[in-house]
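Recap quiz, item 2
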Amino acid sequence: MLSRTLGTARTAYRHAAMPRQQANVAARWYTAGKLRIDADRMMKTLHETCEWGFAHRYGSSPFETGMARLTLDENDATARRWLADEAKKIGCSVTVDEMGNMFMVKQGKKGGAPTAMGSHLDTQPTGGRYDGILGVMAGLEALRTIKDHNVETEYPVALINWTNEEGARFPQSIVGSGVWCGDVPLQKAWNLQDVKDGSLTMKSELSKIGFLGDTKCSHKATPLAAHFELHIEQGPILEASGKKVGIVQGGQAYKWFDINVRGRECHTGSTPFDTRSDAMLCASRIIVESNRIAKEQSGLASTGILRLSPGSVNTCPGHVFFTLDVRHPSTDKLAALCKDIEAAAHRIASSESEKGCDVDWVETFNSPAITFHPDCISSVRKAVEANYGADHGVDIYSGAGHDTCSTSKVCPSSMIFITSKDGISHNPREYSSPEDCAIGAQVLMDAALLYDAQRSK
Amino acid sequence: MLSRTLGTARTAYRHAAMPRQQANVAARWYTAGKLRIDADRMMKTLHETCEWGFAHRYGSSPFETGMARLTLDENDATARRWLADEAKKIGCSVTVDEMGNMFMVKQGKKGGAPTAMGSHLDTQPTGGRYDGILGVMAGLEALRTIKDHNVETEYPVALINWTNEEGARFPQSIVGSGVWCGDVPLQKAWNLQDVKDGSLTMKSELSKIGFLGDTKCSHKATPLAAHFELHIEQGPILEASGKKVGIVQGGQAYKWFDINVRGRECHTGSTPFDTRSDAMLCASRIIVESNRIAKEQSGLASTGILRLSPGSVNTCPGHVFFTLDVRHPSTDKLAALCKDIEAAAHRIASSESEKGCDVDWVETFNSPAITFHPDCISSVRKAVEANYGADHGVDIYSGAGHDTCSTSKVCPSSMIFITSKDGISHNPREYSSPEDCAIGAQVLMDAALLYDAQRSK
C-alpha cells in the first residue's frame, strides 16, 4: 500500500542498498543502514505540520506553498505543542529551557548526555517548507524508527528544536542555541523586539505561548554529547556537483552590520545636486560598492533591510538605515573585507556624496569561521558511504549560519546537507525532493547512531 | 511700540522707499506701496498658527521647530477652521469645494471673478514653517491690510487655501488645484489613500473634518481672474545671487515614476553572486545610474521612497519598490532624460544584475514646463521695482511644482519667491527671515492690487 511518494523514496534506498554490504563500519551495536527510516511517514508529517504557517502559494498542488511561521507566533506555538506531544508518544522526556529550546530525550542503556539531532521549526516571512523544518522532522523520524524497532541505544539520544534560528521576527539569528552555548547573554536575547511591534519581546512572546521554561538555558544545564543537523544546502553547489549528500566540514565566517546614513532632507525639485546631502543616493552607492569589493575578494555582501525617512516622493531622504551581511570562508579575510567596505562607505559619504553625509557603522553579529568535529564528520561520512557509496558524498562548507555553529563551540558537532533545487532558499519555492529528504534523514539517523555506538562514555 | 521683529522689517521698507517714487506704475486706483502690510502681525499670525502641527525642535527659541501638519489631519483641520473664521471677520465669503479647497472672497466695486492670492497650509512630515504657510499668511495679511484701510478694489480679491499640495500623506502632489484646473479626475483624487493606512482616503478624511464641500471643484464653478502665489524659493539660487525677490517666469518640467524591481529571494550566505537576482542591489544600481545620467543632462533625479520585501538581514530582497522624481527646465529634454534613465534601468536589470531582475516602470505624474502669464509677471515686476528698485528682483524659474502651476493652465498666474536660508526646504530647519517674508508679502499684495487696477473686465 505504498503511496507514489513513498514508492519513489523507497526506490532510492533499494538502489543504494548494495554498497552498504561492503562498508567498513565499526563492529559495535549499530551498523549504518541496520534501521531504515520511513520516508513516507516523514514527508507526510512534514507537510501536515506545514499546515501551521503555510503561505505564498505558487502552484496548484497541495505542497506548492512556502511558509511564514515566524518564531513564537501562533503557528509556531501549535507546531511546538504538537512536537512535544509526538515526542512523549515515543517515550521521550521533554525539557523546555528559558529560551524555549525544546530537548526531547529518549533514554539509552546508560545515562549521560544525549547524542542529539536538532534544527528549528521557525521560518523566514517568505520562507520554504524545508529550511530547519526538515531537520526537526528527520530527527523525529529517527526517534520514531528507533522506537518502532524497540532498539535501545548505548546512551540517550535526543531531538532538539532550537528557538529563533532565523532572526526574522526578533532580529538576531541563531539565538536560542546562541544563549545555550554561551555566545549570547540571556537578557539580551529576551529583550529582542518584534521587528513590527517593539512592545513585543522574545521573553513576552515565550511567556504568552507557554514556552518560557524553568530550565536554565545553558549547555551546562542540558549538556549534549554531540549534535548532528540535517539541513538543505540553501545553495547551488550540490546540485551542480551531482552529489547526493554534503558532508559539512564547517561554516564560513560572517558579520552583520547596522548602518545609518544621515544627510539632509531637501526638496527634489529646487535643490541642485551639488548642494545636496542625499542619504538614499549615498546608501545606494555604498550598497553597490560593497557588492563590488566583496566580489573582488571572493566574499559575499548583501543588504536585506533598508528603511528611509521621511519617505516622500519629492523629498530627498535625510536618513537611511540599512543592514549589511558580509561573509567569507576565512575569519581573517572576512575582517579585512569588512574593513575595506567600511572604509569605502566613509569615503563615499564624505567625499563622493556632494555636500556629504555621515555614516554610523555598528557591528551587530560576528560568527567566526567554524570547523566541525572530526568524529562527527567521520560518522556522517561512514553513514553516507555505507548507505550510498563514497561517490555520493562531497565535502562542503556551509554558507549560512546554523544552530550547529553554536553547538560546535561546546560539543562535537557536524551537519549533513542535501540538494536545494536551483539553490533556492529563504523563498517559498525552496524545494528538496522526497528522495533527497529521505537520504538526508537516513544519514542523520545513522550518523547519530554510529556516534552513539562508538561512544565510550 | 514696535517689537524688535517689526522694527527690523520696517527698516527694510524704509530702505526701499526711495526708488518707489520714481517707479513708472500705472495711473490707476492703485500704485505699488500705497498700502503697507503689517509685517509684525503677519509673522505673529504665522507662528501662532504653526502651533497646530509644530514638530522636530532643533533649537531653543520658540520658532525653532519644523512642522508635521499633514493634509486633513487634526492640525490641518484646526488651521482650516481658524482661517475660515479670520476670513469671515474681515468680510470675506468662504466657499469650500469638493476637494476642500477654500475660496475666501472679498467683494470689490464690480462683480466678476476675483484676483486671487493662494497657497497651501499642509506640510511635509518633516517640513518647515514657511513652505505654503507663508503664502497663505501673506494673502491673509493682504486682505487684512485692505480691510484696515477700508479700500475697495475694482473687482473681488480672494485668498485660497489649496488642499494637499504636498502629496505627502495622500501620495499625489498639487491635487486640490489639480482637480480644480481639470488635470486630475475628482474620483482619482478622492480615492488617494493615506500612505500609512490604506483604509483612509482623501474623501473619507475630507468628510471626517467637515471640509467635503458642496461646490463643484472646477475653475468653471469658482473661476479666477488671476492667481498670484508667494513662496519660499526652496533652493539656493536667490541667496547666492544676493537678490531679494525672485520674479518667477515659470516652472521646470517634471515626472514621477513608480518602479518595481522583482528578483528572487535567496539566502545571503549560501547563494553565490552569479546565481542571484538581488532586487535591492539592482535598485541601488538604478538609483546611482539615474543620478549620473541626470547630472550629465543638466536635469535632476531623486528617490524619496523605497520599500523592500521580505525585509530580513540574511535574505536578499526579492522585491523593491521605489519612486523616481525627474526634472528638467525643458519638457522635451525631460522626456529624453526619462527615456535614457528607463533604458538604463532595463539594461541594469537584464544584463548587469547577475541572473537578472524584472523592472516595472510606471509614470504616475507628469507636469510639463510651465510659462507664467506676462501680465502677472509684469505686475510682480512693477511691485518689486516700485517698492525696492529693479536691482532687487531677479528672473527665476521654479524647481518645484506649485498650485500656481495648476492655475496657470486656466487663468493668468505667476509667483514671487523669497530667499530660503541655505536653500533648505522640506526640512524642519527651513527658514526665511521676517524681513524677507515681509518683502514677499508686500510684493504679493501689490502685484494683486496692480493687477486689479489694470483689469478692464
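Chain B touches chain A through 67 residues (CB under 8 Å).
Residues 253-367 of chain B form a domain with the Alpha-Beta Plaits fold (CATH 3.30.70.360).
End of item.
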